[in-house]
Amino acid sequence: MTRKIFRTKSINEFISETQKEGGMNKVLGTFELTMLGIGCIIGTGIFVLTGVAAADYAGPALVISFIIAAIACGCAALCYSEFAAMVPVAGSAYTYGYIALGEFWAWIIGWDLILEYAFAIGAVAIGWSGYFANIMSNIGINLPAILTNAPYAGGIVNLPAMLIIALVTWINIMGVRQSSSVNNVIVAIKLAVVLLFIVLGFSNVNPDNWHPFMPYGWNGVLSGASVIFFAYIGFDAVSTAAEEVKNPQKDLPRGIILSLIICTVLYIIVSAILTGMVPYLDFKGQAAPVAFALQQVGYHWGAAIISVGAICGLTSVLLVMLFGQSRILFVMSRDGLLPGIFGHINQKYKTPARSSLIIGIITAIVAGFLPIGIVAELTNIGTLCAFMIVAAAVIVLRKKAPDRPRAFKCPWVPVVPALAIIFCGILIWMLPVVTQIRFIVWLILGLIIYFGYSYDHSIISGGLFSGSMKPSGQHDDSPTAKNK
């Protein structure tokens, strides 16, 4: 069994599966991919978590926290780019792990990504609900607290969070072109709002607010980096669109790297201005730190615009994350590791509609009934673990297939992948122990599912069920296929 669980799939096998009739539409280019990345990266991190990280962890040194998180993500992004250009398949890190490390590690990554996206979607939807309730309150409509908070936060259900997930799920089912067009509009609004804050805030910076610069020491800076790491989650979602990209060898690396660079620059500027406008301790308990900072210096109209921009920003994050989650489930199902329902392609919309619907229902339940703290921390640890495995996969594949054509090559291998592993490992260590325990429980559940179902149903297993699934069974709508 030990040998079998590390069986791999070749790059040619993965690519051939994407070329079968009935696949997804190839409509995305560098611009659309960059906008998808920005749409997913700029959201909860900049509009919600900056205040928490400044007040409770890093103080004005939040800028350094963002830089540390950016270095970790930058090293991982270079690894992702090499794989994305070489293997233009929708599974992202899951696919890369399957090729280099084998099925078992691919399953671990896929299981991590399910945790990352499901809980990230829930966390973002909860933040969206908070901004929405605030805007409604400003126009004289007070939503009842029991319908805008989870049971553990003084309510019964977070209904706005569930409703926005339902809307975004419908948009994703309708098709990638529609999702991309909506995302482009939203991202344009979001970037305009961020630039507005920079213009208004720059002239109101008081350098005295940057002292003491590092009130919680380096431990606080690193803890802050592990918290605001959530802000960078999203560039990996670009690679999940690989099967819908017109020229993946060039467009995917460009989209991943450009979106990360643009967002990193904006994060550093915004965090520096934010902590310069208002003393860092004033952000304690503030769910809308950017709008709060503008209110404190008298720009109430600017704060209102920022709130609207935050709604747009969080909506685009939901759009891209729901998009990415459905594509990962789609590829895992195509490989037989998940039931065939996740791999079905709707022939009208050319999207994995059933997968999108299922993940929409699950994430709506998460957003409606769980508190944001637990949800955000679980998102971070799942992502960091996936990044580490992808970095290791780059090193392994360079050894196993050194002559394989690579349209984009990660520089300074194995140094850059090793740095990604080290930085991500440090950030995992800085997360709360209870989060680490919950993650271990999640992994144990994943192992039970793998050995109880996926191992035997894998299309390359050679096990009991190896002949029961077609390599591309998602295109067969017959009753027999549905029961397999």
Automatic annotation (TrEMBL):
It is found in: Membrane. The chain crosses the membrane at residues 33-55, 61-83, 104-132, 152-173, 185-204, 216-235, 256-281, 301-324, 357-375, 381-398, 410-431, 437-455. The keyword Acyltransferase does not apply. Its main location: membrane. Keywords: Membrane, Transmembrane, Transmembrane helix, Transport. Pfam families: AA_permease_2. It is a multi-pass membrane protein. The keyword Translocase does not apply. InterPro entries: AA/rel_permease1. One of its GO terms (cellular component) is membrane. It comes from the Bacteria. GO terms for molecular function: amino acid transmembrane transporter activity. This is Amino acid/polyamine/organocation transporter, APC superfamily (TC 2.A.3). The lineage of its organism: Bacteria, Bacillati, Bacillota, Negativicutes, Veillonellales.
